[in-house]
Design a protein that fits this description.
Shape: globular
Radius of gyration: 30 Å
Largest sheet: 22 strands, antiparallel, barrel
Strand content: over 45%
Number of helices: 10
Oligomer: single chain
Distance between the termini: 31 Å
């Protein structure tokens, strides 16, 4: 695909801002000359409100520098951070084409696999706006604007409030940039697809008193189709089992004749019943051919920072952000099953296309019209305030007052799901008029309301023309309207902070910080009327609408205990506590304690203990209902572990003795959990309370004197989360109802006459808990001025020793289930980066990314390395997949005309990871872990500085 520069109207914004403010900068420069003003350089540290560099090593912080950004081929903050070893499985990846809802299309970061909504994202120390589900989209921040990214791998609710359970990501932008910089990057996969083009520019003017920096960026990425990758080309079981995992709902169409399902003989006549033959696996549909392995995306963003020293001690600062993100998804045409309880639209016996004269139940993949969704998000953000400092008894005190406003507007346009109102008419009675044209209704009748109707012939296979064919544009236009969902979230923050030195102790200044904050979050998400009424083949949904406010106050102390003593060059304690009062659930207090001990200049020992919380999101509290096709195990089915088929509870529900659970296509399940053929409904809960956490870290930082430039770090961490907001598990409800015999849990279950669960409702609850524990190990070595140039080595590793979540065994007993080694929760994740600098002109980088093996679930008739595994009181077979290592390479040349030319290759050796036959509990529609590379990606970047 030929690259093009997308139109960008927002690009006019930075020019307008720059033009308007140039006189201000010029005036400030003149004032500097007159007054001899000095630059305010008070330093903020992520994880503390007390300004100063002395406390920076008290907590485990990973910093991604501007240089690190430029030495990568990534075009978004989330992609860049996804490669750090402590990052978990993506919450919603570009490989998850099946995902739906407000959050789809965004880029989110999940640290420690604790969930993306438990990692707080800040932009210059101020939280980003979030969706109604509490997700903060990192894609809205242009990479060109970033100076560095701090990742605090520790709980920090005492400092920042809700959501800072697992970590805090603070994106720091460039300020007082002077000059101009423009860049273009283009890359694509070796298969010739997935092209990405990024254009960016940064312009700034600055002097001693003021600065204006504007960054603009346009990024466009083409999609990658499932039919073009080895792991999805042949269905969801990969190339070794072609055809397996394909949908029995074929694009040829099939219908029920007696007790068997038949299809049209190729080349046969739909009016001739003799041409109906049994459906064969060769006629199944490989839905992956119409799925996207990676969705298409386009981003247009503008960010500007304006700061001005009103006096020598008071500074005005403002950030402005506009971002527009468009994401395109596509999945296979809907697997239409006329006998489905939610659809119930058989082909009428009086249809002009019915050769039998009897009502026909049919199944057909609507292959001619794939389902597409265009998700557009517009973000408008302002964050600004006044900061300064003053002296009390020659001790400096810093203060600031800030206001932030963030507005997200989302519009989702869908196409490809059939209107059930239209299909009922199109499949109903029809006739052929005198001109040989098929008409809806009954010959000779007035047929009011059917003027726009176009009869549909579902017996015509894909690719066969004729009246009523889905290939007919008039039929498509009638059956497939466009659907529009809209949403909006607003965040308003008003805060004030004060920090400084109270008095001097023998070991140094006792410092403190205090502050208050008021925040209001409001949001709505309104699905299309078809979704709300359930009158289409898509997932049913209802409106989310709500708001809440919170008032908070915090206090923090940094207390030096010892300094400049034998075995105690420094001993410092930091304590903080935050009070939060929510309008929806009440108040909570969260505290933190950290200590830093330096027995020598070369060695630092640190530790933290922290309480954290996550307030329920608007979606959790006030969300409407949503529909999904759940994977579950029916204990009333024979063939499942711990089956209770035939007991009193199953019999009372009308489940026949010998019943086998039905899955997709209403076929008997052969493995469990098995996906329901009917939509289940879940909903919110306005009585939810906050999630709570307790985290502990302990570590050492060692910079040996005998090896200049060598830094070693080792940190242990443990998190315990309680009252996690979870969907009340389908399996939990079924076990409570049928195994334990708690009849109060049966109310939301509806079974059809054949015994299968045809509908189910379940809501959110504070029942979840989990524990995780592990180690972070880091080695940095800077080897300068050798005969061969300078070398930088950076090796970062995360080892996860425990990741346990609350669950239930077959007997309905509450247990903790270990997930280390499951997809996304790697035992070891490690990155080694080596950079070679030559003569200040060349930089050559090599990165190795290692992921330990995966414990995949076992699937019938597939490899299973440990079929006899027994865990938690029941059979738990698994298939162990090996480790994977990916290699990236980049070479950059700094040209004499102040330009940098970079060429890079991600996944140099085109590593193909293993097929996950069960898929695992990760965000993807394919049997492949979404974080793994899907091919060799080559890119080139040109940067020109002025």
């Amino acid at each position: 695909m030929k690259a093009r520069i997308p139109a960008m109207r927002p690009g006019l914004l930075p020019a307008a801002i720059l033009t308007a403010l140039l006189p201000v900068a010029a005036s400030a420069q003149a004032q500097d000359a007159a007054d001899g003003a000095t630059t305010l350089d008070r330093i903020s540290v992520t994880g503390s409100r007390i300004r100063g560099v002395e406390i920076e090593n008290q907590q485990p912080i990973l910093t991604v520098s501007r240089q690190d950004i430029e030495r990568s081929g990534h075009t978004s903050v989330a992609d860049l951070l996804q490669n750090i070893p402590s990052a978990g499985s993506p919450a919603i990846s570009r490989a998850d084409a099946l995902a739906s809802g407000e959050n789809v299309g965004g880029y989110y970061i999940d640290i420690r696999n604790l969930g993306a909504n438990r990692t707080l994202v800040l932009l210059n120390g101020v939280r980003l706006g979030a969706t109604t589900g509490g997700y903060q989209d990192l894609s809205q921040i242009p990479m060109a604007a970033i100076e560095r990214i701090d990742v605090l791998k520790d709980g920090a609710s005492s400092i920042y409030g809700s959501d800072a359970i697992a970590a805090v990501v603070n994106v720091i932008t460039r300020k007082r940039f002077e000059g101009a910089e423009a860049s273009i990057q283009y890359g694509q996969y070796g298969q010739g697809d997935g092209a990405e083009t990024t254009y960016s520019a940064t312009v700034g003017v600055a002097n001693d008193r003021s600065g204006i920096t504007v960054s603009a960026e346009v990024m466009e990425a083409d999609p990658v189709y499932g039919g073009d990758r080895f792991f999805s080309r042949y269905g969801n079981a990969g190339p070794d089992y072609p055809g397996s995992g394909w949908s029995p709902v074929s694009q040829y169409g099939s219908w029920q004749r007696g007790s068997e399902w038949v299809t049209l003989r190729p080349g046969g006549d739909p009016s001739n019943a003799a041409d109906f033959v049994p459906l064969t696996p060769e006629q199944y549909a490989n839905s992956n051919e119409q799925m996207l392995v990676s969705t298409g995306m386009k981003r247009e963003s503008v960010f500007s920072n304006i700061n001005y020293d009103l006096t020598d001690r008071i500074t005005l600062n403002a950030d402005l952000l506009f971002n527009k993100r468009t994401t395109d998804q596509m999945i296979a045409g809907y697997p239409y099953q006329s006998e489905s309880r939610a659809i119930n639209t058989p082909l009428s016996a009086d249809s002009a296309f019915n050769p039998t004269g009897e009502q026909i139940q049919f199944r057909r993949r609507l292959w001619e019209v794939p389902r597409t969704t265009t998700s557009q998000l517009k973000t408008t953000r302002f964050s600004g305030g006044v900061s300064g400092y003053f002296d009390i008894a020659d001790r400096p005190w810093d203060w600031d007052v800030n206001y932030a406003y963030n507005r997200n507007e989302v519009t989702k346009t869908g196409h490809g799901d059939a209107s059930l109102i239209a299909t009922r008419q199109a499949l109903g009675p029809s006739y052929v008029d005198a001109n040989g044209v098929a008409r809806c209704g009954v010959a000779g009748a007035e047929n009011l309301g059917l003027e726009s109707c176009r009869p549909w012939n579902p017996l015509l296979p894909y690719g066969v023309a004729g009246q009523g064919s889905l290939g007919n544009q008039d039929v498509q236009d009638f059956l497939f309207p466009y659907y529009t969902d809209t949403g909006e979230t607003k965040t308003k923050i008003l805060s004030a902070n004060l920090s400084g030195s109270l008095f001097e102790l023998p070991a140094g200044d006792l410092s403190m910080a205090v502050g208050i904050e008021h925040r209001k979050d409001e949001g709505r998400f309104v699905p299309d009327a078809f979704a709300q009424s359930g009158q289409y083949t898509g997932l049913a949904a209802s409106t989310t609408l709500g708001e809440y406010e919170v008032d908070e106050a915090y206090i923090e102390f940094n207390v030096p205990i010892l300094s400049d003593m034998a075995f105690a060059r420094e001993l410092t304690v930091n304590v903080a506590s935050r009070y939060s009062d929510y309008s929806n659930f009440g108040d909570t207090i969260n505290s933190k304690f950290s200590v830093l001990w330096r027995p020598s200049d070369a060695l630092a020992v640190r530790g933290t203990w922290a309480e954290g919380f996550r307030a329920p999101s608007i979606d959790n509290l006030y969300g409407g209902t949503g529909a999904s096709f759940e994977q579950y195990t029916d204990p009333c089915s024979v063939g499942v572990p711990g089956s209770v088929n035939g007991n009193a509870a199953c019999n009372a529900a009308g489940v026949p003795v010998g019943y086998v659970q039905l899955g997709q296509g209403y076929q008997a399940c052969t493995s469990w959990p098995c996906q329901t053929p009917d939509q289940f409904i879940s909903g919110s809960n306005p009585n939810l309370g906050p999630e709570t956490s307790e985290s502990v870290t302990a570590g050492i930082v060692y910079s040996p004197e005998f090896a200049d430039g060598l830094d070693l770090s080792l940190d242990w961490y443990r998190y315990e989360l309680e009252n996690i907001i979870i969907s009340d598990s389908v399996n939990r409800i079924l076990r409570d109802c049928y195994v334990i015999g708690d009849s109060s849990r049966c109310a939301g279950i509806t079974r059809a006459g054949d015994g299968h669960i045809s509908a189910m409702f379940y809501g959110l609850t504070n029942l979840g808990s989990m524990e995780t524990e592990g180690w972070d190990f880091g080695v940095k070595y800077r080897l300068r001025d050798t005969a061969f140039g300078g070398f930088n080595f950076n090796w970062q590793t995360t080892y996860t020793s425990k990741y346990d979540q609350a669950g239930q065994n077959a007997d309905g007993e509450d247990i903790m289930i270990g997930y280390v080694g499951d997809p996304g929760i790697f035992r070891v994740k490690s990155n080694l980066n080596v950079n070679w600098e030559v003569n200040d002109e060349w930089n050559i980088g090599w990165t190795t990314r290692y992921y330990s093996g995966i414990n995949d679930g076992c699937v019938a008739n597939r490899p299973c390395s440990d079929p006899d595994r027994y865990a938690y009181g029941e059979t738990a077979p698994r298939n162990q997949l090996g480790s994977n290592t990916f290699h990236d390479f980049q070479v950059a040349y700094t040209a004499p005309w102040n330009a940098t030319i970079s060429v890079g290759v991600d996944n140099v050796f085109e590593r193909e990871a293993q097929i996950m036959y069960s898929g695992g509990n990760v965000s993807t529609a394919f049997p492949y872990y979404p974080e793994f590379d899907i091919g060799r990606f080559t890119y080139m970047r040109y940067v020109q500085r002025f």
